[in-house]
Amino acid sequence: MRTANGARGEVLVELDGAPRRLCLTLGALAEIETALEVSGIEALAERLRRPTARDLMAVLAALLNGGGEAELAARLEQASVSPQAAAEAVARAFEAVGE
């Protein structure tokens, strides 16, 4: 059974038919900034107020990488992930940082 390390800010979400670990690490944050071509938390927050589908995929891939789920992150465009599930997973990962 997979578990998440809450102290590290990890969350488990169901994506592509299996539980997946997401984590907003510094590396994931840098990957997100690079993918979305923004610099800094304020610019990132502004960009994510109205994310595009591409934005959502980039953020989800970075969070998957941060959680050690590089295999799914690499094939995310072909995976069976609904937009709603992706948005909820991203929201949960960002919420976990503040807990």
Describe the structure.
- α3 (53-66) packs across α5.
- This protein is 53% helix and 10% strand.
- It starts with 10 loop residues before the first strand and ends with a helix.
- The mean pLDDT is 90.
- The radius of gyration is 12 Å and the shape is globular.
- The protein has a two-stranded antiparallel ribbon.
- It has helices at residues 26-36, 41-47, 53-66, 70-74, 83-97; strands at residues 11-15, 18-22.
- It is mainly alpha-helical and 99 residues long.
- The protein contains 5 helices and 2 strands, in the order ββααααα.
What's the SSE blueprint?
Layout: E1 11-15, E2 18-22, H1 26-36, H2 41-47, H3 53-66, H4 70-74, H5 83-97
Antiparallel strand pairs: 1-2
Helix pairs in contact: 1-3, 3-5
Keywords, separated by commas or semicolons:
5 helices, 99 residues, two-stranded antiparallel ribbon, mainly alpha
